[in-house]
Design goal:
This protein is α+β, with helices and mostly antiparallel strands. It has a single domain, classed as Glutaredoxin (3-Layer(aba) Sandwich), CATH 3.40.30.10. Helices cover 40% and strands 20% of the residues. A four-stranded mixed sheet has the order 2-1-3-4, covered by helices on one side. The protein is globular. The model has no long low-confidence stretch (mean pLDDT 95).
Length: 90
């Protein structure tokens, strides 16, 4: 993972870290899913941070949003997008 993602993970007390964009239906669905499961999430909207998406793609290899990481363990764990997170939280 890149320093940017590790820094975001270290700066939050939330259980999940999610990179989103403003008009993304999968981002909205992922936020709803995490809320329904009672999970806390720190959202970083890439629309407000020009150039950051390149760094997130470099860190995760995931080219679409949302990009979701589980922060509950020793190290941040990249899960994927909405579909992967939905399966992960079953």
């Amino acid at each position: 993972m890149t320093d940017l993602v590790l820094t975001h993970a270290a700066e939050t007390e939330e259980e999940f870290l999610m990179y989103t964009t403003t008009f993304c239906p999968y981002c909205t669905a992922a936020k709803r899913l995490l809320a329904q499961k009672g999970m806390s999430v720190r959202e970083v909207n890439l629309d407000h941070h020009p150039g950051m998406q390149r760094e997130v793609v470099a860190a995760t290899g995931h080219r679409t949003v949302p990009v979701i990481l589980d922060l509950r363990g020793e190290q941040p764990m990249f899960i994927g997008g909405f579909d992967e997170t939905s399966r992960y939280l079953r």
